[in-house]
Specification:
One of its GO terms (molecular function) is sequence-specific DNA binding. The protein has about 170 residues and is mainly alpha-helical. The chain has eight helices and no strands. It is about 70% helix and about 0% strand.
Length: about 170
């Protein structure tokens, strides 16, 4: 469903002024919370201009730039859409799929470079003791990183549970 400029501005300002969270604000203005979240992100990047209607024809160079930044910076499609003021995040998804199929000449070189830099998989039997030791160190560091990440996520979840008042 399409929403007009005014409802978007009122809902976003209500949320940003700290009156309510996404879900309550969305319910109050009868809009999907996901839309409110996207509008808010777009508004934070582009102000009211994010909601102005414009003819949206994107050059190949612009599309390639958006895809490159999205992949390089590991942006979500929604974040990239907000950052580049693209109305529908699915547009970026289509561009990325096209880029992976080398539909953008500007990205062909980048894709080829990424493929060249990947190391071929070497079997442990074919590795030298030094390479095996390096692999063990890498895997230990990776495991430690993942364990730390899990602990942080668990801690965040527990803090959220403690701060959220229960209905008892």
């Amino acid at each position: 469903m399409k929403y007009d400029f005014q409802i978007k501005m009122i809902a976003v300002r209500h949320y940003l002024d700290g009156h309510d969270g996404f879900k309550i604000t969305a319910r109050k203005y009868q809009v999907p919370a996901s839309s409110l979240r996207a509008w808010t992100a777009a508004y934070q990047f582009h102000g009211e201009q994010a909601f102005r209607k414009a003819t949206r024809i994107y050059s190949e160079q612009f599309r390639a730039h958006v895809v490159d930044v999205t992949l390089r910076e590991h942006l979500s499609m929604r974040s990239a859409a907000a950052r580049f003021n693209i109305a529908d995040y699915q547009t970026i998804k289509r561009w990325i799929l096209a880029a992976k199929n080398s539909a953008f000449p500007a990205l062909k070189e980048r894709n080829n470079m990424a493929q060249k830099t990947q190391k071929p998989e070497i079997k442990p039997e074919d590795m030298t003791p030094a390479e095996l030791l390096e692999e063990v160190r890498y895997l230990r560091a990776e495991r430690a990183y993942n364990e730390k990440l899990d602990a942080l996520m668990k801690s965040k979840t527990e803090r959220k549970k403690k701060s959220t008042p229960s209905g008892h």
